[in-house]
């Protein structure tokens, strides 16, 4: 009997209205999560002033969110591979929305820390949105559409900077927390129409359910499915994952230890370890750059003046929102550059070129620069950092098979959150101690090693089918 695979169906139908709706839903998820993270640049100093906490406690507010994200990334990855993409998305978004709104009512610093930790756990499921979306995209368009998808993250950062600019000039930080949680509630309203991934359903041997999703896609796109019956890929050839099996996913199970065994198999081990380190470096650099934007100019002024008062962290910087807004705009050229070269030079080359470019922009910041020069250099570094992070979010899901994809990307994301946990100690702690050169040199070292790691990736995934 004639059969076709999920890839055959997606190629035959192309990227149509159905995928566009999936893009908008998944993109809104990324927009919501980027807003939750971006507000850390604004809330920390204001909380410090209101409750008179130390600079270390201000840094802790960011670190506790990333600790929650580390836990959430692993947990949601496991849940996604074991119980389905929709299940992971539903519970992670519900937790983010509920804890985000409730944190606006925090009566004290400790309760705010606890609630923002829960927000971090929910936001840890962000990577499921990217894996879920990519599993609906034809191979030919995957690179370009992933970069379009990543634009939602950039829109979220810019929107949050604009929202903070408007809200904090008129209302308190509590209102900013409340408004930031609203996109997650919109996701919950429209969750009922979000489809399960047909790739995941096939990996679970739920062929009839996968067929229903593809038929719905066919009707929406007004394009015919290939002739025959849907069949799962019988041979896992991606990265030589093993001998041919009738159905590797159904035989060994998915999620949990079965997925972990695949990640640490002989053929995947090198890719897994290198992806972990590059994800750590990208997270360290990206969130560090966000914090540098709000801390660097302030540190220069404070360290140049012997009469600086620690409690005036942001009161003397009227250009804070403008600087954050301008450097957030840098993510758009970063996405454009990535889109131009990712399908030309490939995933690996694009990542190492952008990482070394980020090093180049950060280098001059080891010494004091004029505020306009500082903003321009951070603009360039942010563009390169965003581009590299986006291509990594495309590369990692392409490396792993469907039955272990969310677990693999989830653990890598969790490793990345360690970078988010320690970067406030560099971006805030060292700068507040007037060690600007040492702080920038740490960024240079981490990014340089990540560039080398990208060169050492064993596989180029450009043009490959997702298994």
From TrEMBL:
Q: Which Gene3D superfamilies match?
A: MFS general substrate transporter like domains
Entry protein name? Organic cation/carnitine transporter 7
Task: Tell me the GO molecular function terms.
Answer: transmembrane transporter activity
Origin, by domain of life? Eukaryota
Provide the protein's localization: Membrane
User: Entry's InterPro entries?
Assistant: MFS_dom, MFS_sugar_transport-like, MFS_trans_sf
Q: Origin organism of this chain?
A: Zea mays (Maize)
Membrane topology term: Multi-pass membrane protein
**Among its keywords, does the record have Transmembrane?**
yes
- Keyword flag Transport: yes
Q: Which UniProt keywords apply?
A: Membrane, Transmembrane, Transmembrane helix, Transport
Record GO cellular component, one term: membrane
Q: Which residues form the Major facilitator superfamily (MFS) profile domain?
A: 22-462
Q: Where are the transmembrane segments?
A: 20-40, 60-79, 88-107, 113-134, 146-167, 173-194, 268-289, 324-342, 349-367, 373-396, 408-431, 437-459
């Amino acid at each position: 009997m004639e059969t076709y695979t999920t890839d055959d169906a997606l190629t035959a139908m192309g990227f149509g209205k159905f995928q566009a709706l999936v893009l908008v839903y998944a993109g809104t998820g990324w927009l919501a999560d980027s807003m939750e993270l971006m507000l850390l640049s604004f809330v920390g100093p204001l909380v410090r002033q209101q409750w008179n906490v130390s600079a270390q406690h201000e840094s802790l507010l960011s670190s506790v969110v990333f600790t929650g994200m580390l836990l959430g990334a692993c947990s949601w990855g496991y849940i996604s591979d074991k119980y389905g993409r929709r299940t992971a998305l539903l519970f992670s978004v519900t937790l983010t929305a509920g804890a985000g709104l409730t944190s606006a009512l925090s009566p004290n610093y400790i309760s705010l820390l606890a609630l923002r930790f829960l927000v971090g756990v929910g936001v840890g499921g962000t990577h499921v949105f990217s894996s879920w979306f990519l599993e609906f995209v034809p191979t030919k368009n995957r690179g370009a559409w992933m970069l379009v998808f990543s634009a939602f993250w950039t829109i979220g950062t810019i929107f949050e900077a604009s929202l903070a600019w408007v809200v904090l000039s008129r209302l308190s930080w509590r209102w900013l927390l409340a408004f930031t949680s609203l996109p997650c509630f919109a996701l919950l309203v429209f969750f009922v129409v979000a489809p399960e991934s047909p790739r995941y359903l096939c990996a679970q041997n739920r062929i009839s359910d996968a067929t229903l999703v593809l038929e719905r896609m066919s009707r929406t796109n007004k394009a015919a499915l290939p002739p025959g019956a849907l069949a799962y890929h019988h041979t896992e050839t991606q990265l030589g994952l093993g001998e041919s099996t009738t159905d590797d996913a159904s035989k060994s199970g998915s999620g949990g230890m079965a997925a972990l065994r695949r990640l640490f198999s002989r053929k995947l081990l090198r890719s897994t370890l290198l992806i972990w380190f590059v994800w750590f470096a990208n997270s360290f650099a990206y969130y560090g750059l966000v914090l540098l934007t709000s801390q660097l100019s302030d540190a220069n002024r404070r360290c140049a003046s012997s009469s600086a008062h620690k409690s005036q962290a942001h009161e003397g910087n009227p250009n804070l929102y403008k600087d954050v807004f301008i450097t957030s705009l840098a993510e758009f050229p970063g996405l454009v550059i990535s889109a131009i070269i990712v399908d030309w030079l490939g995933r690996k080359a694009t990542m190492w070129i952008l990482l070394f470019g980020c090093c180049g922009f950060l280098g001059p910041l080891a010494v004091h620069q004029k505020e306009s020069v500082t903003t321009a250099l951070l603009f360039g570094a942010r563009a390169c950092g965003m581009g590299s992070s986006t291509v990594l979010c495309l590369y990692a899901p392409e490396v792993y098979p469907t039955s272990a994809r969310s677990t693999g990307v989830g653990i890598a994301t969790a490793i990345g959150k360690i970078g988010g946990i320690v970067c406030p100690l560099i971006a805030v702690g060292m700068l507040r101690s007037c060690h600007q050169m040492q702080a920038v040199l740490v960024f240079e070292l981490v990014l340089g090693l990540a560039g080398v790691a990208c060169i050492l990736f064993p596989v180029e995934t450009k043009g490959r089918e997702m298994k």
